[in-house]
Structure to design on (223 residues):
């Protein structure tokens, strides 16, 4: 079974802090994604990556950056956390465009 | 850009009732279509998919048919159970590798 592991289940940070969310997958997938999930808004794509060191902006990239130095790891960075970034963050990976997404368990981030 | 529109919830049904959750999409080219499900306290998982027009995806008694003429991918089940209570997300892959989700529809099934 594919495993997508997010480093933290719950995280509390202060406004202005730099925040790193880490995600690792163990199935050599090409594509990795970061979404945020908010009530009434569903899942919104922040960034995705289709290869090492390659990244593309999703629908809501403002305030975020990403890093993919190794194929199995995809990091989401909040350069200066703000309260409107309080959310559930979901990492996912898949091999190709018709393959299913495999999700991690999510990181619930609270910015105070 | 690509977009997915789902019916708003929550949808509340009695056990053994019929279910339809509407999903329509806008995309360039020939998207692949998916339904994902999120059970309470769990992560999202794939329920079914269809990759070309007129394909029918099915799993766990759920079905959805890719209708290119109406740009729809409605989720149906003939007899729901309490254990089907969850949030259901319609999604598509359009050009490239980006996967776009709808806002989700919560289903509550009561005895």
């Amino acid at each position: 079974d594919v495993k997508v592991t997010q480093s933290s289940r719950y995280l509390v940070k202060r406004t202005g802090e730099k925040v790193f969310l880490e995600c690792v997958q163990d199935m050599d997938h090409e594509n990795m994604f970061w979404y945020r999930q908010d009530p009434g808004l569903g899942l919104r794509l922040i960034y995705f990556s289709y290869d090492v060191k390659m990244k593309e902006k999703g629908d809501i990239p403002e305030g975020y950056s990403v890093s993919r130095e190794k194929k199995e790891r995809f990091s989401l960075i909040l350069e200066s956390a703000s309260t409107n970034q309080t959310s559930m963050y979901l990492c996912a990976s898949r091999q190709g465009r018709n393959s299913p997404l495999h999700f991690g368990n999510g990181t619930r981030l609270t910015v105070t | 850009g690509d977009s997915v529109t789902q019916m708003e919830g929550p949808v509340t049904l009695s056990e053994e009732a019929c279910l339809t959750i509407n999903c329509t999409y806008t995309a360039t080219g020939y998207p692949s279509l998916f339904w994902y499900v999120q059970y309470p306290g769990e992560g999202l998982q794939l329920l079914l998919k269809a990759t070309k027009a007129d394909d029918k995806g099915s799993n766990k008694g759920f079905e959805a048919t890719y209708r290119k003429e109406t740009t729809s991918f409605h989720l149906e089940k003939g007899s729901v159970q309490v254990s089907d209570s969850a949030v259901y997300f319609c999604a598509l892959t359009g050009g490239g590798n980006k996967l776009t989700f709808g806002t989700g529809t919560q289903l509550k099934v009561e005895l």
Observations:
- The two ends of chain A are 37 Å apart (CA to CA).
- Chain A has no helices and twelve strands.
- The interface with chain B takes residues 31, 33, 35, 40-45, 48, 50, 56, 58-59, 90, 92, 94, 96-98, 100-101, 103-106 of chain A (CB under 8 Å).
- The mean pLDDT of chain A is 94.
